[in-house]
Amino acid sequence: MTTPTARRHVNVELLNRLRDVLGGTRVSHGTLDGISYSRDLWPRGTLDVRRGRIENRPELIAWPETTEEVSRILRICNEMRVPVVPFGAGSGMCGAAVPRRGGIILDLKRMKQVERISDQSNLVVCQPGILGAHLERELNRHGYTLGHLPGSLGTSTVGGYLATRSAGLAATYYGKIEDMVISLQVVLPDGTVVTTRTAPRRATGPDFNHLFLGSEGALGVITRTHLRIHLLPEAYFFRGLAFKNLAAGLESLRLILRCGMRPLFVRLCDEDDTATTMNELGIAVRGCLLVLIFGGGAGMVELSGRKAVEICRGLDGRDHGEEPARVWYEHRYAEHYRQSEILAEPETIFDTIEVAATWRDIEGVYRAVRGAVPKEIRLAAHVPHAYPEGCSLEFTMTGRAKAKKDLELYDRAWSLVLDALGKNGGVLSHHHGIGLQKDKWRARQQPVAETLLRALKRQLDPYDILNPGKFDGEPEDAC
Ligand SMILES: Cc1cc2nc3c(=O)[nH]c(=O)nc-3n(C[C@H](O)[C@H](O)[C@H](O)COP(=O)(O)OP(=O)(O)OC[C@H]3O[C@@H](n4cnc5c(N)ncnc54)[C@H](O)[C@@H]3O)c2cc1C
Fold first, then answer.
1. Which residue CA neighbors atom 16 of ligand 1 most closely?
2. Residue 94: CB within 6 Å of ligand 1?
3. Closest ligand 1 atom, CA of 96?
4. How far is it, in rounded angstroms, from Cα 94 to Cα 12?
5. Does 154 lie in the same domain as 262?
6. d(CA 436, CA 43)
7. Residue 30 maps to which CATH number?
């Protein structure tokens, strides 16, 4: 990993101009604030902190409350060539919010208003800094759900979801965040405010929303969005089934999706995931556990659920009744928060590898990742989202290095996995994004698209002030 040259961008003039916009209390250059915002939840950053290295400290933190304030800040920073990194809740897993070149962290969490819930048009209008859990609680009070329920629901923001193309645990039913967006308001690097039209569909050329979905804070700052909402399910159908091998579980899922059924949640575990994560939750099942949960209108879920179970039985799936699915459902958020506990042990490493492939390629990808990691690494895998064309696959990787070689082992494992993915039809990320971690591999996997992205970045951000050093900045040596 290269260490960036610490260039100072902040001077009295900048501080005064920002205080003019935000007042005295919503700008900070305090050391502790700087340390807190020097990383997100990329485990590599945590490994650095564990060995006492705190790199990438921002010089200032700013907390805007309105689109106008964001626009004024960007105008000033563009003029003074100061880097600005949009920041949601910092739960990103690949270093996307790390202020690689110093400058300002633009923390959007004070932009947390739910502006409107429209019963008539089934949508919610909100600011980007609201935590997913707070938005969901507000929607639930009105009988709705956003349907975007990531494992990090309590520690991540709507802006972060949009900027990383996040996937909730119920993406099989509701889709990923990009499927929920009706319109966006975005502030461009020069301070211009752009608002896309709020309409259910359009044929007005390429979709402008999609320029910013997944742009990881490098093309614009999202300041408002209209998102599709859904009535809360009336009824649920829970079932846990066990398969002798992963292939049978994958085939069951494929057939269920092909018949047009959409479970609310799926979780197909490989044998290691069943024997570790699921058994630790008290689910005493062997083989490969499939959790199936349907939700919706009372009669409908029962019908779909029964049909899905029939498909699984046809592939020798053993029916374990409701209990395994109910237990997983109760722990569906808690099971994700293992990073701090595991990384508290010296020399341990931990991360999540989340990829996607078509049904044709998914088993090959599974084998390729397993075959690629060094022998010191343990993997457990599960399928958290499934679609008619294929599914995602999430590996939990844990390991222990010797003699202060933890970073080396971590980097080697990732490098081997990302190389293997390129050769086996998998995409580098299904929902965590690229960040600092996968930049180099994305450029390799899609060189033409990368050239176009860079041209777009140069056009929108000629002085490279927004989240520089990532996305389409110069590809740095990620590892
Ligand atoms: C325990 C745990 C579980 C997780 N589970 C899931 C999961 O189930 N599904 C999933 O998809 N992810 C998951 N994640 C990853 C993470 O929560 C998501 O990537 C989330 O979308 C990040 O949101 P955030 O608000 O924390 O964004 P941050 O980490 O603060 O930022 C992420 C990126 O978005 C940019 N950004 C943030 N806000 C804006 C804005 N308003 N405008 C422009 N750019 C912006 C930042 O610059 C950065 O590039 C998990 C993480 C953890 C730690």
1. 92
2. no
3. 49
4. 33
5. no
6. 12
7. 3.30.43.10
Domain final residue, candidates 198, 231, 264: 231
- Asked if 404 and 347 count as a contact pair (C-beta separation under 8 A), the reply is yes
Report the SS3 class of residue 235.
Answer: strand
The pick from 67, 69, 70, 91 for probing ligand 1's pocket by mutation, whose C-beta has the most ligand atoms within 8 angstroms, reads 91
Q: Give the strands of the sheet with 390-400, arranged side by side.
A: 318-319, 235-243, 288-296, 265-269, 377-383, 390-400, 348-358
In a domain, 427, yes or no: no
Neighbours of 27 (CB within 10 A): 21
Domain, as residue range, for 150: 114-231
Domain annotation covers residue 2: no
Distance 186 CA to ligand 1 centre (A): 17
162, 223 Cβ separation under 8 angstroms: no
Q: What is the pLDDT of residue 7?
A: 59
Low-confidence residues of the chain: pLDDT under 50: 1-5, 473, 475-479
Q: Are 132 and 475 in contact (CB under 8 A)?
A: no
Q: What is the pLDDT of residue 227?
A: 98
Judge if 120 and 222 occupy the same domain: yes
Q: Residue 244: which CATH number? A: 3.30.70.3450
Ligand 1 atom at minimum distance from 161 CA? 21
Q: What pLDDT is stored for residue 288 in this prediction?
A: 98
Q: Which atom of ligand 1 is nearest to the CA of 223?
A: 41
Select from 283, 317, 336 the last residue of a domain: 336
136 within some domain: yes
> Is residue 43 one of the residues assigned to a domain?
yes
Token pair for residue 241?
């089934």
Q: What is the CATH number of the domain that holds 139?
A: 3.30.465.10
Q: Look at residue 402 in the predicted model and tell me its pLDDT.
A: 85
Residue 357, phi-psi category: left (phi > 0), alpha (psi -120 to 50), beta (remainder): beta
Ligand 1 neighbour 97 (Cβ under 6 A) = yes
What pLDDT does residue 472 have?
Answer: 53
Enter the tokens of residue 171. 């993406």
CA–CA distance, 155 with 132 (Å, rounded to integer): 8
Please give the number of the atom of ligand 1 that sits closest to the Cα of 433. 19
Q: Which long-range contacts (CB under 8 A, 24 or more apart) does 128-131 make?
A: 128/88, 128/157, 128/158, 128/159, 128/162, 128/222, 128/223, 128/224, 128/225, 129/88, 129/157, 129/158, 129/159, 130/157, 130/158, 131/89, 131/155, 131/156, 131/157
Asked if residue 117 has its Cβ within 6 Å of ligand 1, the reply is: no
* Per-residue confidence (pLDDT) for residue 94, from 0 to 100: 96
